[in-house]
Amino acid sequence: MSDRGQFTQWLQDTIFTPLEDKKMPVMEHLVELQVRLTRAVIIVGILFVGTFFFADQLVQWLRVPLQNAFIPGKLEWVPTDLPAIPFVFLAPAEALWQNVKVAGLFALVLSTPYVLWEVWQFVVPGLHVHERRFVGPFVLISTVAFYAGILFSFFFVLPFALNFLVSYGVNAGFIPQISIEAYVGFALWFLLVFGVIFEVPLAITLMAKIGWVDAPFLKKYRKWAFLGAFIFAALLTPTPDPFNQCLMALPMYVFYEVGIVSAGFFGKKRKPAEAQAEAAAPTKTGMVPTMAPKPAMAAESEYVGVPQGRPR
């Protein structure tokens, strides 16, 4: 037996088979859900306590993209031409609340793999074997894609957006002075949105795998996807300017195109009989006679319409 076959058999024997026919009453399902939610909340709480002690350092890291640009070739940050920008807080508890917000978000992001594992353990008994083999890699890849979107936004998108927006205000003659609440909210929202944007190809692949969409269907609605990307970007951007809207809409549409390619490779394959039936359906329903209409003096025995009533 090959190594791949041995690994598949090991997964079947150790993970999938013990979960077969694991049936529980509704109350036991609710109790299990409560237990797993409690575990997830405890883990998030423990991570929150840890991240709150480093909240000041995390906020300092969030400030890095404001006056620095990341150079991929050198793998380092270099200062930009922007002047020093002071941060202010406009309410007594604003600084503390921003630390709590940053610590809580980082705790949620760090605990994502464990939360997904608890969700997997709860739903897997109700799935078929082939569904379990598919959902497991899907959860893993979705987690990696979400982290990749956050990192891409932090190193490339956020510095570019902040440099453009602040430079525009400075060139217009304004003095930059940013509230800590406004900046933290802007940065965190950008990171989260790009984490979600990186999930678009995976979501399209999942829908294609289920059979809801396919590559020809997605190609047909390209222009609507382009319009929808800008509409969603207008709703998601923390500022109303078209620059940030384009920064979110264009990657969203690019990932839509990536999803088309992925749907073509991994989409649900239709059976030949279904494809032939679908191809033949328009021909049957849309068949139009090619012969000219018969004259009014045609023979009475010729069929001219649906008979009304029973013949006497």
Topology (SSEs and partners):
Elements: H1 3-16, H2 26-53, H3 55-67, E1 68-71, E2 76-79, E3 87-88, H4 94-110, H5 112-123, H6 129-171, E4 178-179, H7 180-197, H8 200-210, H9 215-220, H10 222-236, H11 242-266, H12 272-285
Description:
With 312 residues, this protein is mainly alpha-helical. It has a domain at 23-128 and 174-195. It is 69% helix and 4% strand. It has twelve helices and four strands, in the order αααβββαααβαααααα. The protein has helices at residues 3-16, 26-53, 55-67, 94-110, 112-123, 129-171, 180-197, 200-210, 215-220, 222-236, 242-266, 272-285; strands at 68-71, 76-79, 87-88, 178-179. The chain has a two-stranded antiparallel sheet. A two-stranded parallel sheet has the order 3-4. A hairpin with a 4-residue loop joins strand 1 and strand 2 (76-79). The chain starts with a helix and ends in a 27-residue tail after the last helix.
